[in-house]
């Protein structure tokens, strides 16, 4: 079958990463976690003493780090200037700063170009997950999915992942990050007009995966 391009967007805690990875693995497609790229550039800014409250400083440094994503869904990788940053990009510090960095237009245009070139290069097809994939990065994707879930379900899933994290604090942090991501001027988190919305609140991960696999197969 021809290479298929699947865009999966939605706020955090909707099961985007787990779903995207499993769907890509099951269908033999590549997988790109675009949130990891924004986290990686944020990690670099923090490590290089760039003031996160200074968008001009962030913009001036946006082209500096070399960010490389490995797209095998069974073991996706991310490096910055050759350093494996898979673990440090998940810290609370990076998580709390990533929305400010990713709101800077120079950061978005730079990372968007990277994403488009990875998608173009994926001969087997690719599942790309993020916030603006269907609207901005890959508007011609063969299939666009927008995952949603209630704030309670999203906070419960995230605190489960963070093992023992306080559900209320997680819920507040998550709502704050989604508001920042949805409210920014440049390519905010949004559902594309032609995206299929899947509310995952009452679904198991397995059910969401099956639903998306079925939708992809209809497109192939
Ligand atoms: O998906 P994840 O929670 O790892 O994304 C981290 C952050 O990266 C988001 O909160 C958002 O600020 C940013 N992001 C983005 N556009 C994307 C993917 C992620 O702005 N396509």
Automatic annotation (TrEMBL):
Pfam families: Cytidylate_kin (PF02224). One of its GO terms (molecular function) is kinase activity. It is an enzyme of class 2 (transferase). Transmembrane segments: none annotated. The keyword Transferase applies. Belongs to the cytidylate kinase family. Type 1 subfamily. Its EC number is 2.7.4.25. This is Cytidylate kinase. Residues 6-217 form the Cytidylate kinase domain. Keywords: ATP-binding, Cytoplasm, Kinase, Nucleotide-binding, Transferase. It catalyses: dCMP + ATP = dCDP + ADP; CMP + ATP = CDP + ADP. Its main location: cytoplasm. ATP binds at residues 10-18. It comes from the Bacteria. It is found in: Cytoplasm.
